[in-house]
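call fold(seq) -> tokens
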Amino acid sequence: MIAYAAPNSSANSPLAINPIAHIALVDALVEQGWYVGNNVIDLALCQALHRELHHMAEHQALDEAGIGRGKEHHLRKDIRGDAIHWLDRESEAQRRYLDAMAELQHSLNQSLFLGLFEYEAHFAHYPPGAFYQRHLDSFRGRANRVISTVGYLNPQWPTDGGGEMIIYHPDSPSQEVARVVPEAGTFACFLSETIPHEVLPTQYPRASIAGWFRRNASMGGVLDPAS
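ret:
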């Protein structure tokens, strides 16, 4: 991977996200509603985040993921089987990743006038056999989650590893348009409300960061909580 030095950093401190990807990402979102790029995330950062998530998984420090929100939130292993931990800037690696997403948020707002208000993200650990059935990340008309992101952390993903994310055509939900191998450095994003996607069963522990750029969907002075 090429190391891109930040304007105010030394040459030994590469940017967390390849800045060239910002242009391709914006163009792809406009043209087709989704983007996938390889070698987008700095590999050293991927390694640090992967170690952190692996340590959490080994020490049972992850929460089982569910579906729904609020009182409707419940576990459904027949729908999704990952375990998660919300990023909270508690490590240098998390801070670097979240700072990179803040820069991307600025680029998206500047280029597409989306009015993105905040970004939320969590680690996602899929043990062998786990999957996530086809779904949308935001209900139509709710528009709290506007753009979804997935950063992949697994080094040297095997060809028989499974665990690919399938992206489907927004107007033909059964038509596959992309198959994303969950290998370190790969970064995907897509429109949360219109792009169906799923995670195929994985044969090996699968590590990623799922995130969402959100609008302020507050009502009555209460900020819409993370779903």
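Helices lie at 20-32, 43-58, 92-112.
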